Amino acid sequence: MSEISIVMLGTGSPRPNLNRSQPAQALVIGNETILVDCGEGTTTQLMKAGIVPESINYVIFTHLHSDHTLGYAQFLLGGWGQGRSELTVIGPKGTKDLHESILKMYSYDIDYRCSLGRSGAGIRDVRIIEFSEPGELLENPLPYKITTARMIHNVPTFAFRFEIGGKTIVISSDTSPNEEIVDLAEGADLLIQNAGLTTGEKSQALEKIWDQLQKEHCSPTQAGIIAKRAKVKKVVLTHFLPEADGRIAFKEASAVFSGEVIVPEDLEVIAVE
Ligand SMILES: [Zn+2]
Ligand SMILES: [Zn+2]
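A: This is the predicted complex of the input protein with zinc ion.
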């Protein structure tokens, strides 16, 4: 069986942060890498992780918030520039629009590069697979079972469950606590769980939006409770604000979940054993 690991490319949030890049994960299965979300900085994060961006032929978007998609233009154009000739993108309704907006915005640039003799393959013929209902992903180009569940956020957002060679990895994406993530993550070897409500010192600006954030994200305690109820082996907390104190997150989640809790740094590699 191929070795499976997750590289936490970006463990940050919409807020600019020198230490935590915007959300993105690389799901590495043997020689294949699937990119899940593509926040700002993802392409350089991939390179820092030793993953050649043009080697990635599959991108999945959990939702279309800016912090999960801002890096897509560079991933798309930069990877094509480096020789990628095939790409499939899977995401909720709106993914096609996002892709086409970027093509339109840079059409002069793409036309110019093609006029120099570069093939349009890998940019003009990207396969976009949109879905709007949760459940097993029916139009699935990958040889693994993929199931999605609808999360509670402020735009259509889906968690993903990957079943690969007897191992199960679940990525919650952005959400407040809900029953669907508990069901989807049932028995998973690894759950990457939103814990966006981790704080240290709360700034005034953060204080102002805190009530709203609680409707859209989980605290580390809530993340730990989801992990416990779903009986997962390991939980990885992510989506940290600049104010977040990882020690608090670890303590809070560990107080309610007896399995392994990981509060990753960017580029941390988590093996699925
Ligand atoms: Zn979001
Ligand atoms: Zn987000």
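Residues 95-105 form the longest helix (11 residues). Residues 63, 65, 153, 174 surround zinc ion (ligand 1) (CB under 6 Å).
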